[in-house]
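We modelled the chain as a single entity of 311 amino acids. Its sequence is:
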Amino acid sequence: MITTIENMNEPEQKAVVCLCILAAFADGAQADAERAQIERIVHGFASGDLDAPAAYQDVLGGRVTLNELAGRLQTPAARALAYEMAVCVCHADGAINDTEQQFLTALRQALQLDAATADPVQQTAGALAVEPLAVPPRVSDVENLDRMILNYAILNGALEIMPHSLATLAIIPLQMRMVYRIGKSYGFELGRGHIKDFLGTVGVGLTSQVFEGFASRVLGRLTRGLLGGLVGGVMGQAAASAVGFASTYALGQVAKRYYAGGRTLTGAQLRETFAAMLDEARGLQPRYRQDIVQKSREVNVTELLPLVRQN
């Protein structure tokens, strides 16, 4: 059975949130902007039954331990899901370093996971994080670029509502591939480092984006539960897809303007344009609700690497 947040009780969900926060700061190297973004995300999901900001402070203040959080997870499925999410957060900004590997090793031991459960998750996450930017077909006109950007946005919206954590991790390499293709269509050969810097400049934090996808999945469901389940079914899925769809669409449109203009926009102009396009994308997302849900039914999570490569 696929492990999902809905199968977990509230203490388990809170433990997963805390473990994701620990994972986000495991390398101790997050920039101030990234840390502020993660804190903003947590505060945005405050609810009556789960005080997310307090959980955030408990983690950063050292008032909860890895072993204590692992002990709250009652089933093998819950422990496996918590590990999968932590692995994805650690891999969000690329290949993990020694400190992050030590954290994941300690987490695996605390969760008492065997190699058959843990190794495939880390191998797939690592492969997605360092997937090379292969040369795709050239996209040569504005109309095709707009269609390509929309297709990436729909696909990433679909990945975000899938129950697999690794599907959420695939959003970042797809966004990077999209920017690569846009730059190439205007004659720029872009490297991974440049694209990561570009995403950071416009305001798309790699770690915080993956964290936000998981936070909306965990804390967002708790909040909807407190509202009596008013949001559910297809409508609930489509609402949950808003982050992946909107950020991808806005990123694509900003990249198109930036490279079409010969990379002359300043950092402030890029951020201003991204904010405006993000608002536009949020307005567009309901129009493509059914496309997002349909795409989520077509994607096979076991083929994430081929999916990233072909796009």
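As a brief sanity check on the tokenised model: The CA atoms of residues 66 and 198 lie 34 Å apart. The chain has one domain: 5-310.
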